[in-house]
């Protein structure tokens, strides 16, 4: 292997703050990196764990532009950049490599600075001494450079670890941050074909929650294209989570029963309570610890605080609402950034929108909702049958 090698330097954020459990999170992130690189068919690679970094090395050439999207989508990663690794950590080797790198990446004339981090405290020079010696060498050997420590045009990063690494922040591609997939346990996402629930799933997954998605399908009132839309949304979410189980629950009989036996203004709340009951039972089957919904306080009638309170008791599972305090513009922006928005706006209605009353109740009372629900005969049996007839799709 040559003394100077082009590598991919991967950084992570809050994982570094984990105390004695840090290695668990690091290993989970390492598994995700290896899995994504293998799926990308990027050749013979090796992932090295450094303090606060992962470094990917290849035997032979690699297309970094093709590989980068497979890395920067992984939760837990804050950024990734192309850099060089030096087996020889002598000052002469570092200076020569820094000069070659600067000549390739720093257009002149320009202001610059050298920023060094010495993680290996056994190295004989301090960080500021390394920066001074490398910076002076660049000034002596490149025309058109001037030092600017506060706002330089170009920053040369040097990290002294098991090896020496050189890169520039300008080559860094941001990642999503957060926690590694699955590190926080499992949750059931109530996934509709709308804009909000996929974003809620994305944000929950960013906090390390392993997603199982539950979709409520009501043929013939909802079409197969509505189902395909949700399948595509689940597939898109799997790009970030690495995997996802989509459980399609037949909801027609339950919906018709509730529409037939309950006041129209209360139907939306009762439908959502039925969905929560079903999702809670699915969560128990899946050994999940919480439900996740796309509720945003006050966005629609069924999401007022009174309506959300009226959901109480539908399930014993904790309900996580990542979008509770987001407005619609904020939600749409995230949906556009993660590419779920073009799927969500396809013109195929889900089961919730088809039976909306003209004047839905905005301040339902929990006691009345529970009383009305209790008078619906065979509701429990219909729920059990829907769970038994559910279809599972793996991504």
> What is the architecture of the largest domain at the second tier of CATH?
3-Layer(aba) Sandwich
Q: Indicate the overall shape.
A: elongated
List segments where confidence is low: pLDDT < 50 over at least 5 consecutive residues.
none
Gap from first CA to last CA: 38 Å
* Derived structural class: alpha/beta
User: CATH superfamily assignment of the largest domain?
Assistant: HUPs
Question: Helix proportion of residues, in percent?
Answer: 25-40%
Order of helices and strands: EHEEHEHEHEEEEEHEHEHHEHEHHHHHE
Tally of DSSP helical segments: 14
Reported for the largest beta sheet, the result is: 9 strands, mixed
The top-level CATH class of the largest domain is Alpha Beta
Report the radius of gyration as a whole number of Å: 27 Å
